[in-house]
Design goal:
Blueprint (H helix, E strand, L loop, with lengths): L1 H26 L2 E7 L7 H8 L2 H4 L2 E7 L3 H9 L5 E4 L2 H8 L6 E8 L4 E5 L15 E3 L6 H12 L9 E3 L7 H6 L5 E5 L2 H8 L3 E5 H5 L5 E6 H6 L1 H20 L2 H8 L8 H13 L11 H13 L9 H4 L3 H6 L2
Parallel strand pairs: 1-2, 1-3, 6-7, 6-8
Antiparallel strand pairs: 3-10, 4-10, 5-8, 5-9
Amino acid sequence: MKNCFKAGFALLMIVILIIPLAACGKDKVQTVKVAEVTRSIFYAPQYVALAKGFFEDEGVKVELTTTWGGDKTMTAVLSNAADIALVGSETSIYVYAQGSNDPVINFAQLTQTDGTFLVSRNKIDNFSWDQLKGSTYLGQRTGGMPQMVGEFVLKKHGIDPKSDLQMIQNIDYANIPNAFASGTGDFVQLFEPTASLFEKEGKGHIVASFGTESGHVPYTTFMAKQSYMKKNPETIEKFTRAIYKAQQWVDSHTAKETAEAIQEYFKDTDLELIETVVDRYKSQGSFATDPILDEEEWKNLQDIMDEAGELPKEVSHETLVNTEVAGEVMK
């Protein structure tokens, strides 16, 4: 009887000890609300981190929301509707220039080139940029990175966007592909997978990559308010570590493997098309292989903004970029 009592008591003590330990484990899981500017294969490493459980491995539960637009994404962060934003770095400069006392800090870069392509209505065997002169060109939103990069590249090739071609910018972002498919414009600046889909369907032909032409730029980064980062340093580090794991995974795996991993986030897109897009972005170095946003990229971003007349003020790298977290997770 005494032995039974001892065994029962020991079992009870084990249960008593296990319950608080389990509770502690649950407490360590941090929910992070992430607002992405759009749903795009361009952000493949983020979806790999979700699909492969890299966030869960770090004790982070990500609640992902697509906010459809840079202004809406930044509003979500500023209003605390989101903890972290995935959006173009230029938005953090716009917010800072407005005199924010709680600036939004870039802490992990996801893409390092522009993600758009120049699509021609007619097939061109030997494309040269001067063929755009006198053409009708469907552009992107004024002040956004796609349009600023587009103008930067055009000027680089000796084309004045205001006088050498007819620039159309009165069409909403979501309707640009439909406008081109309906017959508007000789050339259009498109994201993937639309560019490849148009080429596959014979609606257009990819003739150039703005990402290749413009060089490295912090096109899409994860950012958070300075106050959130100070209050949640461990969460930011765990989040960044998961992203870094995903970046390394994408870099070391084939386009097909990446496409298969992220297909659940693009259920309406054919797997073969996803693979084509991943391969195109990967081959031109669009996916950053680590989360560091360096000073040269930051300078290139501001040069592009300045060239477009959209840089409200020059902001130093150390003011709006934190590389310490990324550096730490890469050790």
